[in-house]
Write a structure and sequence with these properties.
Number of helices: 17
Distance between the termini: 43 Å
Strand order of the largest sheet: 1-2-6-5-4-3-7-8-9
CATH class of the largest domain: Alpha Beta
Shape: globular
Strand content: 5-15%
CATH topology of the largest domain: Rossmann fold
Radius of gyration: 20 Å
Number of strands: 9
Number of domains: 2
Largest sheet: 9 strands, mixed
Helix content: 40-55%
CATH architecture of the largest domain: 3-Layer(aba) Sandwich
Structural class: alpha/beta
Order of helices and strands: HHHHHHEHEEHEHEHEHHEHEHEHHH
Length: 321
């Protein structure tokens, strides 16, 4: 390996090597670092030392040690991403978003494109159904626009439906918005949101934990939800089925001790059962006409505390797997 690179780049190559190992998720990488002290030290370990760790085995250990022969490939990949204006960050990077950094399953590698470089502590996520009602669309646009005007950054998952209107509303309010995708950054899914992705690129940023070409899959789309909630001080669920993707985001937010807000609709159908269930387990309720109330409690987060403290065990019961 060429050791003329700066120490930071070398660390990034080690992190990229770990990210390339099949079956090695964020939590296992944390366990390796806790045991060996640094990413570099992992690759200097003996196979039995890795294989004996909890939730590891000889096959996974050999995969980790095998990729150490591919460092020139990782350097090439980093160069290619840099040429596409993709900023690649590892957990050691000072620019890695602070709200994510301390999460036990924080992505070891995070890729970013766009003009927004500092996430700060005023990011709120809006999520919901891919087939929202007209009222759900109107509420999302209004809420996202008002949040943007109040100085909040709006995060969502760039999916069809509520996500799309969350990003569009923030842009309409001349605000910043963050899209978190479950693919690599060169293959936006769904394709019809490419024009929206370009606008987000110009007035915010796009994040992906996939530095290598990655097609959309249900698993990756669920996993990306922990990043959406993890970047945010609060997650707002507009409409969602009980089994919808937005409920995964709410589950992650609750695990991360972040606030969850859910719309309390007067009329019920399947797309509104999710928020109703969340309200029943401690989410902060608001009516479709109470956008001002939402802005108020997010501007004064201490007012949310009564809805967060004391409900965690109940909330967790909702999502036991």
């Amino acid at each position: 390996m060429d050791m003329t690179h700066s120490k930071k780049n070398t660390a990034l190559e080690y992190w990229l090597a770990l990210a390339s190992v099949e079956g090695l998720g964020s939590v296992r990488i944390r366990r390796l670092i806790a045991r060996f002290g640094s990413v570099q030290a992992i690759f200097e370990a003996e196979l039995p030392e890795i294989a004996r760790l909890p939730s590891f085995n000889p096959v996974l250990a050999s995969r980790i040690l095998t990729v150490s022969g591919n460092f020139p490939t990782f350097r090439e990949r980093l160069d290619a991403l840099e040429n596409q204006d993709v900023r690649v960050m590892c957990l050691e990077d000072p620019d890695y978003p602070a709200p994510l950094k301390n999460l036990p399953d924080a992505p070891g590698i995070l890729c970013r494109v766009g003009t927004l470089t500092d996430i700060g502590d005023r990011c709120v996520s809006i999520v919901g159904s891919q087939k929202p009602s007209i009222e759900g669309i109107e509420l999302t646009l209004s809420l996202a626009t008002q949040l943007a005007l109040a100085g909040f950054t709006v995060a969502s998952g760039l999916a069809m439906g509520i996500d799309t209107y969350a990003h569009s509303g923030a842009l309409a309010g001349m605000g910043k918005t963050i899209g978190v995708v479950g693919t690599d950054l060169s293959s936006i899914y769904p394709g019809r949101n490419n024009p929206l992705a370009m606008k987000i690129y110009e007035h915010g940023c796009l994040f992906s934990e996939h530095p290598f070409p990655t097609a959309p899959s249900p698993g990756n789309l669920v996993q990306r939800n922990r990043i959406i909630s993890g970047l945010s001080i609060a997650t707002i669920v507009i409409e969602a089925r009980k089994t919808g993707g937005a409920m995964h985001t709410a589950r992650y937010a609750q695990r991360q001790d972040r606030s969850v807000l859910a719309c309390r609709w007067d009329t019920g159908h399947a797309q509104r059962e999710g928020p109703q269930e969340l309200i029943g387990t401690g989410a902060f309720p608001f009516a479709p006409t109470e956008v001002d109330k939402v802005i108020d409690v997010l501007t004064h987060p201490e007012r949310l505390e009564t809805y967060v403290s004391g409900t965690t065990s109940e909330q967790m019961g909702l999502f036991e797997e």
